[in-house]
Every structure is written in structure tokens, then in C-alpha cells.
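hiii so um. not sure if this is the right channel but i have a protein structure encoded as C-alpha cells and i wanna go backwards to a sequence. like what aa goes where. can anyone help
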């Protein structure tokens, strides 16, 4: 009975997720070694056509090799499994099997296998951005390749280490490793290895703007690729293009044009639609820079045709950027803005898709890891039971069976407790990832919104009709509401963690309600329904409260009411219904004539992700989070949320909160006079890497006659400050190469007296206290032009005093 029980467990859980026809084909092979080698052949066969199936064959081979106890086959199976996880992008899973392979190879004293496991492990760590660990692993692999005399392995290790150092901006060490790889390739007279090293060296010099040295390396790469005798037109096209771009940076337009055209020709011969489109875009950018507009337009049209066939969104993104530059260069600002908006929209879509795919990949990797841990636990448990019962006497069988079951249940309970602890730790890690993800996403959303709001402000100052200005106002107001919602995403995360805090400000409640009325009147009119605001006279005009959280709750309630109402009226009624601790109890009632909610659904309507039925989801959409969020915020504000609803009659939701009566603030006049201009003798330096933000800042500065020098990162900014004295430095706080914090600290350490104003799209809570000693002021994106001009005037006052 006990053996039958173990066999049943193995039958249920002991196999990989191979399709039945493939698994039965393997299991029909009687000899284990032959069966495992057949699985390896299947891995090779499906590696490129179906990586998921190849992975399952590798896992099957690994289990069979472990059961057979054949270390050599286990090594091969671990290598295949790690490689397949790496090919699928599950780098953490790949690391697990590669580390097992290293451990087994060291146990067996097999340095050949150890070197290949270490090389693969370094690649996985490199992809995860764990550069120091990757360097250490590559160096270990390099030592083994040198012991084996494997020159190709040595060359690849040297190039890999150089690329990691390049990614870390450690250009000196990167150059040393690339030169070592080049020397080895020259000793072997291997054109491919030499071309790999010279191409990397050219890329390194180009990154440091040493274009003359970069040209020498790219010419050498071209000679090696031509001497190799292969018809790899993609490599040759890349070589010619790299040479042309260097000439373009050096201002040698004739040579740049010649080599860029050759690059396009070879990319055309490669047959890759993506390469052709990219080549035409690079040529168009070149002609944009030389003001040869007809040639630029012709190549942009060619690029558009090939990018449409290639169906590569990143190529289309580059095309939109070049189109915007083309029209901006010709002075056709409206067309430039149109293409820039397309660029921003596509860029935002690609970022969302990338974030989604990253999250999905992490989720799949987590599920795979859990399944394998469960499988290994069951397999280990079955092995222990077989060993326990191997020498059991028949006369004691029943007794041992009962004892074994008790032990099994006891071990299972311990493992369950350990599993629960592990799940709790994993859940805490997942919540940390979620928090960081929301922070990154909110930061990326704020950046294009900053550009949209800046464009709206610019349009308000242009010569447009009153009706168009009203539309721009609504656009600006709606964009600002979207920014508030992005901030509330982080507030919701804090609410779930119990760390959300109220931020009290004195503001006009009446003005806020009229702003909501203006925004939702347009939404409701599009559906053919009316939106009304009834404000009772006893409601205080100014209050001290958390405006953002009140607006978030009202936005949720009003948008729900409009969404579920197809005919009739949505009304926001605000009144005072009493007092609480000496403060008026203000009741915000959102009333609609929509579909209503049944009594049964009202019991669960405040549960997260709950929707009345599937028909509601199909017809109206939504996540079912709005009311749950609103209830949590209402409780945080010491209030309540009350629901009254009747099916096919309508719904009334009341937000009741105590509000402290505020005071009318003093009238603050505009921070800048209408005719104020920035003095010509006062110099400005801008450090900003985002192209759209550069364009927006340039527009704001031009309005007050200010000219500026522009840099892309903190390192360039620091170099400019050492060459020239600046009165004002506008410094983005998040840039590549060197961020704004580091650049500002180095500028202060050098004793520079310039005013430094920090620019950031982060929340105020994310800006650390150290910023106070580094920056004279901080502007949080999106900011108004008047906010920037105020800081500019304060900078002038500082120097005048």
C-alpha cells in the first residue's frame, strides 16, 4: 500500500510539463542514458523555434540524469537548462542552475565545464545590472580559460569585462581590456576577434568624443570585416555608418555624407527593413544638420516606407523625432509640435509596454521558481520514503506504514510553516518591488505631462480665439488633474501600508468645486447628460484640509456617476450637516439617475476589485478600485462614505468629513512684470537630458530674452562651469553619467558662487534633505513659467546684493 501511495504521488507530480506525445516518446526508450541524450537532441532542435519547449526538455533531462546519478549528464543538463532560462529572459532562474553547474564542476575537478558555466553566469549577472558580481565571475572564467589555453574564451571574457566597465563609465579599464582582446586576436590572426575589439574601442572613443581616435578604430574594423571575406553586409553597413557619424561630429560634411551613403547601401544589401529605415533616418538627420531640407525630406519619406514595412516601433519613434527636428529647423513650429506630440505619445506607449513586459517576466519567473521548489520538495520527500522502506520487514509493514504516515504529516506541517514564512518574505519583497515600480512609473508619466502643460501655457500666450483659449484651459486643468492622480497612486500605496499622512493646506473649497464643475461639465455633455453643482450658502469658502485627497474622492465618485448614467442628471450637492469637535461636518453628495446597485452588490461594493457583474465590466470597464480607495481616504480624513442606491432609479454617495474653517489668503500678484527681461550680461547654463524638457525650457527662457548654454548631463555641466562663469544654473536632478546631486556638490566644493536651481519630476518626499545645502531652490515638474521667472529674479537680487 505504501509503495503504491508513493507511485501515485510520483505519477501526479513527477513529470515536467511536456506534451503527452513527446513525453511518451522519450519514456518508450528503455536505456536512461539514451533517453537523456534524446532529450538533449530535442533541446537543440527546438532552441530557436520553440524555446519554452526546449526548456521543458532540458528540465526533463536534468531530472532523469539526477535519478540516474550520472554526474557528466547532470552537468550537460544544468548547462542546457541555464542557457534556456537565459534565452527566455529568466536570468535569476538561469543563475540558479549556472551556480549549481559551477559547484558540480568544481566537485568533479572539471575546469572546462566550470569555465563555460562561469561565462554564462557572468552574462546573466550582467543582464541583471549586477556589474561587480559579473566582473568577478568573468575574471574567474578568464583564469580558467588561460589555464586551458582557450584563446577564443579568453578573448570573449576580455571583451565582456570591457563592456561591463564601459557600462559603469570606467572608460580607462574598459580600454585596457579591449586592447588586451585586440592583442590576442592579432596573435591568433583572427579577423573576427580583432574586429570585435576594434569596434568596441571605437565605440569607447566616440562616447568620450575623441572622434579622431574613434575614426582610426572604425577604419580598422572596416578593413578587418572586408578582409574576412564574408558577405555580412550588416557589419559593413554598421562600419561605414560609424565612420560617417564621426566625420559628422568633426564637422567634415563631405566625408560624413560619403560614408553615411555607403552605410545605407550596405544596410540595403543586408535585406533588413529595420536597418534600411535606420540608415535613411541617420542620413535625414545629417541633412537636417546641414540645412539641406529637400534631401532630408526625401530620406525621411524613404525611411517612413521601410519603417512601416518593418513594423518596429523603436524605428518609428526615431522617425518621429527626426520629423520634428526637420520642421523645427525649417521654422514650421506647428508641424514640429505635431510630430513631437506623436513622438511623446509613442514613447509613452513603449515605456508602458516595456514596464508591463518587465513585470510580467518577473511574475512568470517567480511562478516557475515556486513550481520547481515544490517539485524538488516532493521528489526529495519521495526519495526519503523509498530509502526508509527499503529494508522494512513484511511482518512490520503495517506498523511502519502508520509510523511513516505520521512522520510524513509532521514533516509536511514543518515544511508548510517554513513555506508560509518564505511566502511572507516573498510577499514583502513583492510589495517593495511594487512601491519602486509605482515610483518609477509616476516619475515617467510626469515628464511628458510637464511638456504638455508647458505647451498649453505657450498656446495661452499666442494669438488664438477666446473659444480656443477656453479649450486650452480645459486641457491644462485636465492635465493637472492627471498629475494629481499620478501622485495619488503613490498615496494609495502608502494607504495600504498604513503610512499615508494628511497634508493640510489653506485653500478655497468653493473654487475647487467650481473647477471640478468645469472639468466634468464637458465630460457629461459629451454623453448627453447634465452635470450640476448645488453649493449651499453655509459651506465655508476657505478650509484647512488635504485638498488632494478630497479631490481624489470626489473625482472617483463623480466619474463613476457619469460613467453609469446614460440619461438624466449627475449632481454634486455640498452642504453642512452639523459639527464635530468644533468643526463643520461638510457633506459632499454625488447623486445620479443611473443604473443603480442591487442590495446584494451593495454589501461588497467597497471591496477592492469588486464589480457588480461581468456585464458591468464589459459595458463600462474599470478596475473596481475607486470606491475602496475612496472609503480608505474618507476614514483617513476622520470621515465616512455612505451609499444609497436603487436599481434603475439611481445612486447617492455621501462623503461626510469635518473641515476646519480657513482664511482668505492675501492676493499675490504675478511674480513677473509683463515687460521684465533677463539682462544680456547675465549668463545661464542648463543641464537637462530630456529633449522635450529642453524644448520647453528654451521656450520659457526665450519669452524673457534669456540665452543659455546647454548640456546633457552633470559631467558636461561641471566641465562648462570650469570654463566659464555663470550666474544661474538650471540643473535636472536625474541625468545619466552624473546626476544633478553629484554635479551640484562638486560645483559647491569648487567654491563656485552661481545660483543653482534643481529641476525634478519626483515627489517632494523623494527629494532628500541633502538637496537643501546644494540647491538655492527646487522646482517640481510640472512648474509654471512664473515660478521659473521668480527664481531667476531672486538670483539677480543675490548678485546685486
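sure thing!! here u go:
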Amino acid at each position: 500500500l505504501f509503495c503504491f501511495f508513493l507511485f501515485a504521488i510520483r505519477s501526479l507530480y513527477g513529470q515536467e510539463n511536456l506534451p503527452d506525445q513527446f513525453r511518451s516518446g522519450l519514456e518508450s526508450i528503455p536505456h536512461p542514458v539514451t533517453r537523456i541524450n534524446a532529450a538533449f537532441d530535442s533541446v537543440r532542435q527546438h532552441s530557436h523555434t520553440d524555446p519554452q519547449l526546449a526548456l521543458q526538455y532540458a528540465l526533463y533531462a536534468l531530472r532523469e540524469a539526477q535519478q540516474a546519478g550520472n554526474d557528466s549528464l547532470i552537468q550537460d543538463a544544468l548547462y542546457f537548462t541555464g542557457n534556456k532560462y537565459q534565452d527566455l529572459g529568466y536570468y535569476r532562474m538561469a543563475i540558479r542552475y549556472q551556480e549549481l553547474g559551477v559547484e558540480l564542476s568544481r566537485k568533479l575537478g572539471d575546469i572546462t565545464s566550470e569555465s563555460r558555466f562561469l561565462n554564462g553566469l557572468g552574462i546573466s549577472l550582467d543582464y541583471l545590472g549586477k556589474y561587480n558580481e559579473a566582473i568577478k565571475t568573468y575574471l574567474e572564467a578568464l583564469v580558467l580559460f588561460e589555464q586551458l589555453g582557450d584563446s577564443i574564451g579568453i578573448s570573449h571574457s576580455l571583451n565582456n569585462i570591457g563592456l561591463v566597465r564601459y557600462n559603469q563609465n570606467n572608460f580607462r579599464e574598459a580600454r585596457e581590456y579591449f586592447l588586451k582582446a585586440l592583442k590576442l586576436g592579432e596573435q591568433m590572426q583572427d579577423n573576427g576577434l580583432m574586429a570585435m575589439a576594434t569596434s568596441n574601442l571605437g565605440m569607447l572613443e566616440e562616447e568620450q568624443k575623441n572622434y579622431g581616435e574613434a575614426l582610426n578604430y572604425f577604419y580598422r574594423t572596416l578593413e578587418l570585416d572586408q578582409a574576412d571575406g564574408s558577405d555580412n553586409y550588416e557589419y559593413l553597413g554598421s562600419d561605414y555608418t560609424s565612420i560617417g557619424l564621426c566625420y559628422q561630429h568633426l564637422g567634415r560634411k563631405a566625408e560624413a555624407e560619403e560614408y553615411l551613403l555607403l552605410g545605407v547601401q550596405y544596410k540595403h544589401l543586408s535585406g533588413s527593413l529595420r536597418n534600411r529605415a535606420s540608415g535613411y533616418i541617420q542620413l535625414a538627420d545629417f541633412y537636417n544638420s546641414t540645412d539641406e531640407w529637400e534631401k532630408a525630406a526625401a530620406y525621411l519619406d524613404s525611411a517612413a516606407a521601410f519603417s512601416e514595412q518593418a513594423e518596429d516601433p523603436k524605428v518609428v519613434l526615431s522617425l518621429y523625432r527626426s520629423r520634428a527636428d526637420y520642421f523645427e529647423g525649417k521654422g514650421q513650429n506647428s508641424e514640429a509640435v505635431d510630430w513631437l506630440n506623436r513622438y511623446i505619445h509613442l514613447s509613452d506607449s513603449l515605456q508602458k509596454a516595456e514596464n508591463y513586459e518587465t513585470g510580467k517576466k518577473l511574475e512568470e519567473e517567480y511562478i516557475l521558481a515556486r513550481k520547481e521548489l515544490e517539485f524538488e520538495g516532493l521528489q526529495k520527500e519521495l526519495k526519503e520514503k523509498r530509502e526508509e522502506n527499503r529494508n522494512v520487514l513484511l511482518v512490520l509493514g503495517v506498523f511502519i506504514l502508520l509510523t511513516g504516515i505520521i512522520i510524513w504529516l509532521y514533516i509536511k506541517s514543518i515544511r508548510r510553516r517554513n513555506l508560509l514564512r518564505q511566502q511572507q518574505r516573498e510577499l514583502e519583497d513583492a510589495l517593495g518591488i511594487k512601491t519602486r515600480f509605482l515610483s518609477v512609473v509616476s516619475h515617467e508619466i510626469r515628464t511628458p505631462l510637464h511638456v504638455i502643460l508647458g505647451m498649453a501655457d505657450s498656446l495661452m500666450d499666442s494669438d488664438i480665439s477666446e473659444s480656443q483659449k477656453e479649450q486650452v484651459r480645459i486641457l491644462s486643468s485636465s492635465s493637472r488633474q492627471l498629475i494629481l492622480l499620478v501622485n495619488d497612486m503613490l498615496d494609495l500605496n502608502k494607504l495600504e501600508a498604513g503610512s499615508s499622512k494628511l497634508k493640510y493646506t489653506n485653500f478655497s473649497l468653493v473654487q475647487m468645486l467650481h473647477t471640478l464643475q468645469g472639468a466634468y461639465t464637458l465630460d457629461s455633455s459629451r454623453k448627453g447628460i447634465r452635470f450640476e453643482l448645488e453649493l449651499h450658502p453655509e459651506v465655508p469658502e476657505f478650509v484647512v484640509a488635504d485638498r488632494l485627497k478630497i479631490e481624489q474622492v470626489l473625482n472617483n465618485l463623480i466619474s463613476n456617476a457619469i460613467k453609469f448614467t446614460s440619461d438624466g442628471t449627475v449632481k454634486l450637492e455640498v452642504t453642512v450637516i452639523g459639527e464635530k469637535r468644533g468643526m463643520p461636518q461638510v457633506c459632499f453628495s454625488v447623486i445620479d439617475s443611473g443604473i443603480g446597485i442591487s442590495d446584494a452588490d451593495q454589501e461588497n461594493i467597497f471591496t477592492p476589485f469588486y464589480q457588480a457583474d461581468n456585464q458591468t465590466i464589459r459595458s463600462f470597464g474599470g478596475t473596481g478600485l475607486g470606491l475602496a480607495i475612496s472609503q480608505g481616504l474618507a476614514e483617513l480624513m476622520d470621515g465616512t462614505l455612505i451609499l444609497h442606491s436603487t436599481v434603475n432609479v439611481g445612486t447617492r454617495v455621501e462623503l461626510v468629513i469635518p473641515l476646519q474653517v480657513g482664511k482668505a489668503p492675501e492676493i499675490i500678484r504675478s511674480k513677473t512684470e509683463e515687460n521684465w527681461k533677463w539682462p544680456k550680461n547675465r549668463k545661464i547654463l542648463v543641464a537637462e537630458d530630456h529633449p522635450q524638457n529642453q524644448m520647453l525650457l528654451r521656450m520659457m527662457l526665450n519669452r524673457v530674452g534669456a540665452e543659455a548654454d546647454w548640456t546633457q548631463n552633470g559631467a558636461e555641466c561641471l566641465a562648462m562651469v570650469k570654463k566659464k562663469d555663470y550666474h544661474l544654473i538650471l540643473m535636472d536632478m536625474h541625468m545619466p553619467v552624473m546626476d544633478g546631486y553629484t554635479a551640484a556638490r562638486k560645483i559647491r566644493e569648487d567654491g563656485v558662487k552661481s545660483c543653482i536651481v534643481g529641476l525634478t519630476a519626483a515627489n517632494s518626499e523623494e527629494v532628500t534633505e541633502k538637496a537643501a545645502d546644494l540647491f538655492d531652490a527646487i522646482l517640481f515638474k510640472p512648474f509654471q513659467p512664473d515660478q521659473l521667472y521668480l527664481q531667476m529674479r531672486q538670483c539677480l537680487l543675490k548678485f546685486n546684493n
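oh and DSSP finds 30 helices and 13 strands in the chain.
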